[in-house]
């Protein structure tokens, strides 16, 4: 039987749970936070990149200023441009009013751009201009706007490789990775698996109405031996599920997912955490376009580059409520 650790010396400003091995990494995070330099966080999905970005923001001089987050992989090119820089009324069919972008909203604060490698080349040029000249022009605008932001970006792929493949500008790469931070996969972070398991047990005990006193040997062994392709996010979900479906004061092997129990899951042979499916991506794009247009279908369709009829059909297919 394994029992919760007695010490509580592992919290990083109460924001993240970290092991001894990761303390060095978080010491670097603390130093980075004191500067205003652009930071690039590299790590697989679910390793905690967004959490680290938000820790940097909260420990920085910009802590009480806005913190805006955007995943660049889930938006079409036009929508991404409009999201980042805003657009002027009449700049495209359906743009029936001026719309502020992320840079305007985050002025004075911090922007976190996840999956930065997915930004199309022409928009990379616009990003570079923001970093070099601290100005940008909204879509359809004629005047440039001044902006003061700190950029934190993240990627799960190598930007150097993206540069070699001609998909990413080298000058932008140097600009955004002034301070590179590498978050290792969970299975390379000795001590973190057990520590984070207890962290999530404590965190989700209340919602499941259980008082967990221990984790049984076989269950802990399975947790420690599993490769965790989905990293901390997957661990969090596994612990949460175990607390919901199990009963009694301990976590047992049978409460864990089939993958952890070494059972093959039909139709799931992927080693990597599954990426978003095309359908999930389409859903996210639809929702993002509707948010961007304030629910106006014509504007949302224009942002997505599809007709209104196609938009209606897609909304119906995805069961998105029609206001
Ligand atoms: N050290 C940690 N302590 C507590 N919770 C953590 C820690 N690291 C990650 N998490 C949790 O794991 C989940 C995934 O973290 P996060 O979203 O930051 O990962 P990510 O690397 O940005 O993922 P993606 O690349 O898929 O966007 C979140 O619920 C986060 O709260």
TrEMBL record:
Top-rank taxon, per record: Bacteria
InterPro entries the UniProt entry points to: AAA+_ATPase, AAA_lid_NorR, Homeodomain-like_sf, HTH_Fis, P-loop_NTPase, Sigma_54_int, Sigma_54_int_dom_ATP-bd_2, Sigma_54_int_dom_CS
Gene Ontology molecular function: any one: sequence-specific DNA binding
Annotated PROSITE patterns: SIGMA54_INTERACT_2, SIGMA54_INTERACT_3, SIGMA54_INTERACT_4
Pfam families: AAA_lid_14 (PF25601), HTH_8 (PF02954), Sigma54_activat (PF00158)
GO biological process: regulation of DNA-templated transcription
SMART domains per record: AAA
Name of the protein this chain belongs to: Sigma-54-dependent Fis family transcriptional regulator
Species this chain originates from: Bradymonas sediminis
Lineage: Bacteria, Deltaproteobacteria, Bradymonadales, Bradymonadaceae, Bradymonas
